[in-house]
Write a sequence for this structure.
């Protein structure tokens, strides 16, 4: 059921011959007769500055909707919402297909890369680890002394030369090359 239109000033309704009705920008409705009684561009009810629009079947659909019945509006907007929802769902599905295809390509690339790595590992001979000729517990007269200070090897500074047995006892094997030594 459509909203009954009436003048907010005199409460008259459209009849034949019909006076024209106008809608103000502040949301009031007036018949043409009452509108002529008031000040130009001023609402008769709230006295605010306003603009008027003559109501007819040619006005904007959004303004026509103000006078439609709620049931008609619900049906109209329900159809629009359904169309919008279907469009968006179709769009989401299309995007999902795109991402699934992209994921499948990435998985295939990963699989190929993994196979290539395995082939390279099969072709490469196993690395031989050479044991040190002397264990850290045995005494090696050719080892380099290792006294770590600030991360660098340092040699003891004595005013006199130590004996050979003292030198051998203080020497240890440093398996990690020092950043200062060229290997």
């Amino acid at each position: 059921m459509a909203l009954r239109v009436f003048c907010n000033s005199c409460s008259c309704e459209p009849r034949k011959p019909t006076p024209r009705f106008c809608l103000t920008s502040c949301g009031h409705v007036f018949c043409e007769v009452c509108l002529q009684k008031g000040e130009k561009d001023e609402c008769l009810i709230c006295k605010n500055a306003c603009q008027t629009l003559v109501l007819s079947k040619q006005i904007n659909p959004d303004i026509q909707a103000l006078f439609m019945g709620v049931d008609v509006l619900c049906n109209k907007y329900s159809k629009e919402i359904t169309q919008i929802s279907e469009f968006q769902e179709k769009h989401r599905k299309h995007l999902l297909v795109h991402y699934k295809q992209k994921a499948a390509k990435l998985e295939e690339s990963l699989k190929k890369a993994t196979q290539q790595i395995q082939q390279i590992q099969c072709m490469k001979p196993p690395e031989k680890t050479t044991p040190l000729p002397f264990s850290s517990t045995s005494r090696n007269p050719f080892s380099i002394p290792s006294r770590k200070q600030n991360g660098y090897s340092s040699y003891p500074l004595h005013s006199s030369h130590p004996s050979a047995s003292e030198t051998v006892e203080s020497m240890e094997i440093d398996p990690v090359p020092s950043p200062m030594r060229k290997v």
Notes: Residues 1-68 form a domain with the Herpes Virus-1 fold (CATH 3.30.40). The two ends are 96 Å apart (CA to CA). The first helix runs from residue 32 to 37. Strands lie at 21-24, 29-31, 52-54, 147-149, 152-154.
